[in-house]
Amino acid sequence: MTNKPLCTICARGGSKGVKDKNIRPLKGKPLIAHTIEQAIESGIFDHIVISTDSDAIAEVAVKYGAEVFFKRSPELASDTAGKLDVIKDAFMRSEAHYGIRFDALVDLDATSPLRDASDIVNAYNMFVENDYENLITAMPSRRSPYFNLVERTSDGKVKLSKTLDKAVLRRQDAPKTYDMNASIYIWKREALLNNETLFLEKTGLYVMPEERSIDVDTELDFEFVEFLMRKKDAER
User: Fold this and answer.
1) 12-49: string of b/e by CB count within 10 Å (b at 16+)?
2) How far apart are CA 202 and CA 204, in angstroms?
């Protein structure tokens, strides 16, 4: 890598689960502010760019130190727009705006406020050191498709989602599986621009603990995340 990676934070205005989720106060500051501050604290970015269709989100983001130089198109702000297309759009706009060819991009989800700045740094270092095409983050899964995740077939039968030649009798004996936590995504430039899928030949996995992996999507998530934040502060 020859230059600092670009950081993007994608946050549209519409939210069906929680109204104005991205700028709703969480422990005294807007939800998106926590992610912006983590990006700044990591020290690995010159540019932290927000992709949004909302003037209110843009105003809050600039206040907390991010950069907003474009408004996301209506097509990319719809419920059906894919996240990868939104990130590509922000990446290409940023290269044109700053006149920089970025070697890599780090996308941070605004709804994952429990990550540490150290997670961003460590995930990026893992990405660079292993020469991955891209990297995703996840936490150890609570349930296993080899042991207690089931699905219903088209003829109505119920079966385990995945099976092995030898039946798994204890969850501890099942292959390790992980839940993607939608916290940090990292791409090399060419891998981002030339692929339409997240899973490539050299995709890295950075594992985070469950207590730093909660994705805020409901009212209950807000309450739970704020509880964990206050608990962490009390333990310092």
Assistant:
1) bbeeeebeebbbeebbebbbbbbbbbbbeebeebebbb
2) 6
- Output the pTM of the full model: 0.93
Domains and CATH numbers, the chain: 6-138+178-235 (3.90.550.10), 142-176 (no CATH)
Q: Are 192 and 91 in contact (CB under 8 A)?
A: yes
HEC profile of the chain = CCCCCEEEEECCCCCCCCCCHHHCEECCEEHHHHHHHHHHHHCCCCCEEEECCCHHHHHHHHHCCCECCCCCCCHHHCCCCCHHHHHHHHHHHHHHHHCCCCCEEEEECCCCCCCCHHHHHHHHHHHHHCCCCEEEEEEECCCCCCCCCEEECCCCCEEECCCCCCCCCCHHHCCCCEEEEEEEEEEEHHHHHCCCCCCCCCEEEEECCHHHCCCCCCHHHHHHHHHHHHHHHHHC
CA 151 to chain centre: 27
> What is residue 170's predicted lDDT score, i.e. its pLDDT?
85
In tens, the pLDDT along 84-111 reads: 999 999 999 999 999 999 999 999 999 9
Residues 6 or more apart whose CB falls under 8 angstroms from that of 213 comprise: 112, 114, 115, 137, 138, 139, 179, 181, 183
Closest CA to 103 of 191, 183, 36, 43: 191
Residue 141, classified by CB atoms within 10 Å of its CB into exposed (0-12), middle (13-18) or buried (19+), is middle
